[in-house]
Design goal:
Blueprint (H helix, E strand, L loop, with lengths): L10 E6 L5 E6 L3 E6 L4 E7 L6 E7 L4 E6 L3 E6 L4 E7 L23
Antiparallel strand pairs: 1-2, 2-3, 3-4, 5-6, 6-7, 7-8
Length: 113
Protein backbone atom coordinates (compact mmCIF):
# COMPACT_ATOMS: atom_id res chain seq x y z
CA UNK A 1 0.00 0.00 0.00
CA UNK A 2 1.44 3.37 -1.08
CA UNK A 3 0.66 6.80 0.31
CA UNK A 4 0.59 9.80 -2.01
CA UNK A 5 0.68 13.27 -0.47
CA UNK A 6 -0.60 16.38 -2.19
CA UNK A 7 -4.24 17.14 -1.44
CA UNK A 8 -5.07 19.32 1.56
CA UNK A 9 -8.66 18.02 1.85
CA UNK A 10 -10.63 14.83 1.27
CA UNK A 11 -10.01 13.01 -2.03
CA UNK A 12 -13.43 12.56 -3.68
CA UNK A 13 -12.46 10.69 -6.87
CA UNK A 14 -9.57 8.99 -8.65
CA UNK A 15 -9.08 7.82 -12.26
CA UNK A 16 -6.11 5.65 -13.27
CA UNK A 17 -4.70 5.29 -16.77
CA UNK A 18 -4.74 1.76 -18.23
CA UNK A 19 -1.45 0.16 -17.21
CA UNK A 20 -1.35 2.38 -14.11
CA UNK A 21 1.25 4.81 -15.48
CA UNK A 22 -0.63 7.97 -14.49
CA UNK A 23 -3.65 8.85 -12.41
CA UNK A 24 -5.77 11.88 -11.62
CA UNK A 25 -7.23 12.62 -8.21
CA UNK A 26 -9.66 15.36 -7.24
CA UNK A 27 -11.37 16.50 -4.11
CA UNK A 28 -12.62 18.91 -1.54
CA UNK A 29 -9.50 21.10 -1.74
CA UNK A 30 -10.68 22.23 -5.22
CA UNK A 31 -7.73 20.70 -7.04
CA UNK A 32 -6.94 18.00 -9.56
CA UNK A 33 -3.56 16.35 -9.19
CA UNK A 34 -1.86 14.46 -12.02
CA UNK A 35 0.24 11.64 -10.55
CA UNK A 36 3.12 9.65 -12.01
CA UNK A 37 2.35 6.27 -10.45
CA UNK A 38 5.67 4.69 -11.35
CA UNK A 39 7.73 7.49 -9.76
CA UNK A 40 5.13 7.87 -6.98
CA UNK A 41 5.19 11.65 -7.45
CA UNK A 42 2.95 14.58 -8.29
CA UNK A 43 3.33 15.81 -11.87
CA UNK A 44 0.99 18.81 -11.71
CA UNK A 45 -1.64 20.40 -9.47
CA UNK A 46 -4.53 22.30 -11.06
CA UNK A 47 -7.06 24.50 -9.24
CA UNK A 48 -10.71 24.26 -10.28
CA UNK A 49 -11.98 27.29 -12.19
CA UNK A 50 -15.12 27.97 -10.13
CA UNK A 51 -13.34 27.47 -6.79
CA UNK A 52 -15.75 24.83 -5.48
CA UNK A 53 -14.92 21.31 -4.43
CA UNK A 54 -14.68 18.67 -7.13
CA UNK A 55 -17.25 15.93 -6.62
CA UNK A 56 -16.87 13.74 -9.73
CA UNK A 57 -14.23 12.91 -12.34
CA UNK A 58 -14.14 10.95 -15.60
CA UNK A 59 -11.34 10.43 -18.13
CA UNK A 60 -10.76 9.81 -21.81
CA UNK A 61 -7.04 8.97 -21.81
CA UNK A 62 -7.10 8.56 -25.60
CA UNK A 63 -8.21 12.21 -26.00
CA UNK A 64 -6.06 13.58 -23.18
CA UNK A 65 -9.23 15.00 -21.67
CA UNK A 66 -10.94 14.86 -18.30
CA UNK A 67 -14.42 15.95 -17.34
CA UNK A 68 -15.10 16.91 -13.75
CA UNK A 69 -18.13 18.12 -11.86
CA UNK A 70 -18.24 20.47 -8.90
CA UNK A 71 -20.31 20.98 -5.77
CA UNK A 72 -21.86 24.09 -7.40
CA UNK A 73 -23.21 22.21 -10.42
CA UNK A 74 -20.50 23.14 -12.93
CA UNK A 75 -19.00 20.73 -15.50
CA UNK A 76 -15.42 21.45 -16.56
CA UNK A 77 -13.42 20.00 -19.44
CA UNK A 78 -9.71 19.74 -18.70
CA UNK A 79 -6.79 18.86 -20.99
CA UNK A 80 -4.30 16.96 -18.84
CA UNK A 81 -1.50 17.24 -21.41
CA UNK A 82 -1.52 21.05 -21.38
CA UNK A 83 -2.92 21.32 -17.80
CA UNK A 84 -5.59 23.79 -18.93
CA UNK A 85 -9.34 24.08 -18.48
CA UNK A 86 -10.90 24.13 -21.95
CA UNK A 87 -14.57 24.74 -21.11
CA UNK A 88 -16.89 25.28 -18.15
CA UNK A 89 -20.63 24.64 -18.32
CA UNK A 90 -23.00 25.86 -15.60
CA UNK A 91 -25.79 23.31 -15.26
CA UNK A 92 -27.97 25.71 -13.23
CA UNK A 93 -27.70 29.40 -14.09
CA UNK A 94 -29.59 30.74 -11.05
CA UNK A 95 -26.62 30.11 -8.75
CA UNK A 96 -28.43 27.33 -6.92
CA UNK A 97 -26.75 24.42 -8.70
CA UNK A 98 -26.52 21.06 -6.98
CA UNK A 99 -23.39 18.95 -6.84
CA UNK A 100 -22.50 16.84 -9.86
CA UNK A 101 -22.17 13.42 -8.18
CA UNK A 102 -21.60 11.11 -11.16
CA UNK A 103 -20.39 11.60 -14.73
CA UNK A 104 -19.16 9.49 -17.66
CA UNK A 105 -16.98 10.50 -20.59
CA UNK A 106 -17.16 9.01 -24.09
CA UNK A 107 -13.78 8.84 -25.90
CA UNK A 108 -13.80 11.21 -28.88
CA UNK A 109 -16.51 13.44 -27.36
CA UNK A 110 -14.19 16.27 -26.30
CA UNK A 111 -11.85 16.08 -29.28
CA UNK A 112 -13.64 18.87 -31.19
CA UNK A 113 -14.20 21.16 -28.19
Amino acid sequence: LEEFRGHTGWVQCICAQPGFVRALSAGSDRTIIVWDLRAKSMMQEIRCGDQSEITSLAMAWEDGMALFGTALGVLCFFNFHTYKLTEEIELCRDGLGEAVRCIAYQPGFGASM
